[in-house]
Amino acid sequence: MIRVENLSVSYGAVTALRDVTFEAPTGKITTVIGANGAGKTTLLRTISGLVKPRQGSIRLGEFDLVGTATEDIARRGVAHVPEGRGVIEELTVEENLRLGALASKVDLAEGIARQFTQFPALESRRRNYAATLSGGERQMLAMARALIARPSVLLLDEPSLGLAPQVTADMMRTISELCTSEDLTVILVEQNAKSALRIAHDAVVLHIGRVAAFGTAGEVAADESLRRYYLGLVT
Amino acid sequence: MSRVRIRRAATLASASALTLGMLSAGLAVSAGAASTPGVTAHTVTIGATVPLSGIAAGYAEVSAATAAVFDYVNAHGGVNGRRIIYLRKDDCYNINALGCTAGVGNTPTLTQTQTLVTQDHVFAEVGSLGTAAQDSVIGYLNQNKVPDLFVSSGSSDWNRAQYPLLFGYQTSYQAEGKILARWILGHKKGAVVGVIGQGDDFGANGLAGLLAGGLSIASKDQLTYSPLDGVTGNFSDITQALTTLKGDNATVVVLDSIPPLTSYIMAAANKMSYSPQWVVSSVGSDPSSVNNPLLANAITLDPYPAANNRTNPWNIWLRKIITKDKNSRAWFPNFYSGAFKGQLDGNMVYGASEGVAFVEALHSLGKNVTRAGIVKAMMTTHFATPSLTPLSYSRTNHQGLQGGAIARIVPNSDPTQPPHFAALLGNAEYTTGDYSNSPIIVSKQKITPIPGYLK
Amino acid sequence: MVRSLSQRYPTSFRLVASVVLCALALAVTFVLTPLDDSKLAGGAAMSIVILGLSWLIGWSGQVSLGNAGFMAIGAYTTAIWANHHTTSPIIWSLFLSTVLGGVSGLVLALPATRLRGPYLAGMTLAFSFAVAPLAIDSRSLTGGSGGLFINFLNAPSWFANLFSGSDALVKANAQWPADVAIVVAAVAFFFMANLFRSRTGRALRLVRDNEVAAELVGVNLQRTRTLAFVISAAYAGLGGSMMTLLSGSVTPQTYGLTLSILLLTLMVLGGIGTLSGAVIGGLIYSYSDNIVSVVNKVTGVNPTSTFGANLKGIVFGVLLILTMMLAPRGLVGLGSYLRRLVRR
Amino acid sequence: MGTFLASRVMTDIFGGLATGAVVALIALSLVIIWQSTHVLNFAQGAMGMFATFVGMNLVFHGLNYWLCLVLSVVTGMVLGGVTERVLIRPLYGKPEINPIVVMIGFLGVIEAVIASIWTTNITMLPSPFSQIYYQSAGHTILVSPFIFYEVAVVAAVVIAIALLFRRTNLGLQMRAAALAPEVSRLLGVRVGRLLTLGWILSTGVGTLAAVVVSTGQVLAPTNMDGIFVSAFIAAAVGGLESPLGAIVAGLAIGLTEQFILDFWSTSIAPLSGVIVLVIGLSLRPQGLFTKHVSRRV
ipTM score here? Predict the structure, then answer.
């Protein structure tokens, strides 16, 4: 479970997040949606410790992540699949996976085998450089690399970006399945609010750095004004 | 905006006013009475730029011996009632690197010379050392009408009409080369001869002398090293030169090198099991400076009586001067400890000879010491110094010594230890005038007596 | 301050400013001792080179470690020319050296300006490393490792007649070269002040800050960078020429990597990309020995010990590091910082 | 005549490879630092020499050559780690000229410190292997046991480094930290430590090269200057990112220099680096072995 309280972040004079408060419960998907520049990516980067907040706290259970180094946050079980997926193109698929497992105590061979069961498409390409993968495969690799360390929290930054609708749908289903099977706390940042709301339990709507709404995905999806003003969804 | 501009203009105007003010002040400051710089009723101040640290620090003994002579003379009432104040400025052989502690920039010799001339107002420079170093300042000294006497270098550069105030001291490299060539032709007939010279006038003049002496040296065997090798620690040109000479089966190799490089070259050759007959210029053959067992049996030229000769009156006198000096232990550390304890060496004899020669020239002036006078005295004095060949200058010859005796470095009784001295192989020989045309003359000079006022 | 002047005022104002500042500097030489005159002369020559480097690094963002090499070109050009034309006025030496410095800059710029950052630094490093061996090898032209010697600058009689007394000759001979160097430096600074304000200057800044934007507004990247490099090399050539005229000699070991590093140090200490920074750099060069002897006195280090002798290298190296880490705009930046503090 | 020329060429090839091997080693160490921290370490040669002075000077006090070698390398590693922490870390994200200038300043400091601590007499560091060239049938072949030692050391280090980077988890993490520091941190990789480790490794390699260069030579603070320039050029020609490129270019420079030395002029030899650089970068401005150019805007 992740609890974000009164979180404010600024880049110099520009405030990116202001008094953000919400809770992402274990075993559920919480989606963070909002327009471009709403602060969604900043929120995830702050949770991972890549950005230092001006004030507020981010609790993982009882532990406050604020002030902890990124690598230590990762080692506490917070996996972050960054915007653009972050696969390292100069490494092979298997090397990418190994890298994901090294900071944790999981058995390397077993972990890799487990991810290949989860994402069978990757196995045949294990010796290929990541640069040769397609967009969908890259997303799979990024997910597999994040999951191999058996995290308790999974932060996903726009996994659907640049993927075909069918691939996106598959991806969303996988996320949903993983969330339940691994008992993960998932925070899913999405532009594509529609598909995100479909699989999410809870939803946070960000608007210019503030929480415009926080509720169950159903409530948010049903709120006509939210849909119109913040999400640009037209029925 | 416009107000700022006016204020700036006012600043500029006041600056101009200040300028004019300082200009007139500056002109007023520099008025004074005309007299001979460096000369007072009781003193004559002279100076020299010499290596006291850095790559050629081993030569520090040379000017120290000169200074010891002056100390001795001063202690005995000076020259015609004037004490000699001798300022030795460290110029690191004009190479500001490798242990140089002079603390002066890229042109150490020029900077130190400027200090001597403009700040210390020296009457003359006496015994400044190094070919390239002096080359860099003879123009400056000439421009400022400062006599530059007894330069410690055998380069032909000191013998030029446009420098009437400049006098060299050391055996001419060309004369030396010519005499060494005669020995090689007489004792190593038909041998392939190679030469490794310092890549400046020292090497070039030495080679010219060898060739003038009738030696034939294939152009591929005429090699040079850069004096900067010792600075950069990159001795690849020396390795390359030795490889070439070894490949050409050169059995005689002439070195025109300074002592640390003599030592290095011999060590490098030994490493590639190459052992030709070394013939080493007097510049780089002093056993205590080279300090290398490999120097044993090398042939060299000695312009002075053998340093181990304990009966030569000059050596006896010199030993007294060296040991009595108040700075003796600081100036001549080799004389007090180490393998060369208690021994005179070539550097001491050399430096002392310069000191003696200057005292003689100054003595001849009587009470009236002027720059024009000392320059004239240089050309008229019959110098009595320890050297084996005559020291005399004329209007057309400012070269200095022009010969010496062929000598062999005597191996140490323990061959793993450095040799201590050279043994003279015969009479001194010298050339006169133009080295290339004049024949080699065998010296008839007996030991010149020590002038009474020096005893 | 000088930079703000150059930016706000027209050429005529910069001309007046240059003349007045030059006159002021000339006036100072009258009151200095001959030894200080000689030091100041070296500083003036060096400030020209520093200015050229400052322009290259500060305005175009290209790092060069090769300016000592261009100095060598200028220095040798002057020596060779002066040896063959002993009576030719020094203006010719200065002119030829500047041009040849620029031309050699152009030759090196062709491959070099295509390179960026570390590549360029390395290329110029290699150049500066190769100059001394090349000079040693081209013996017939350069005099080998012994170098070349030329006549020292002689004070003309009208100038020498300004002085009297026993010291007159020495003073005139020391001050005349200093005054020549100051005038030459003033001209060089005047041109650079205008260059800073020119189209090229602005284009260069844009290229440094944002290549893409520069290309969009029609700046030819390659040509602009090359021009900056050539001008910097020409300034180095001029400075090198002046150095030869002042020292009466040129030797290969003077113009090695160490000098390139020294140039960079002086430029950074003074302040990158400014006229006053170059002046400060030149002054630091003039009085570096005095600075070190002050450090010697304060720390009690014996100047003739090996540590004392190397103190200069240590002091300037540490200063360079500290400046870059704490005050990357150098003394000029520190000055304007203090001014702002006072105003507040 | 033909056989004489052939033996001369063979000799040059051996000699060139020996020189080139050391150049390649320093080039490799530069690439390691460049890859990890995008800093071009201008003080690399001097740092190696400093460590060499610290360790190898003990040879003159009767210590074993090999023990001193280990001491030198360890000193170099410590120096590298401290340098990264103190001088380089505060400069991440600053303009690229800043670390260049700082390392140049550091170069000056180190050379001055070496010169001030150790008397700069001409002292030769003895070699544990003979430097006398082999003789065969009256002909000298310019190869000595020492040259074999030189080449063997370089080969061993290169293989060890290749294995480290290609086969070990630590190597994988170091590569990842260099390629994608932020992603690596998100995966729990302690990037800061690995960057320091990169410097430690690099100066260790650099020191080893400095020891090899100085063995059987005069120990001087500037021993590495020329070799550093060559190595820098090798790294640049190889593309700065590519260890293989650096090694190949390093060997090429060694060979070029040797042939120029033999067939042309000793003084021109320092130019061989420039020649290789101009040719190499004219052919491929982004480096011989670089696959793609990434340019930070």
Answer: 0.79
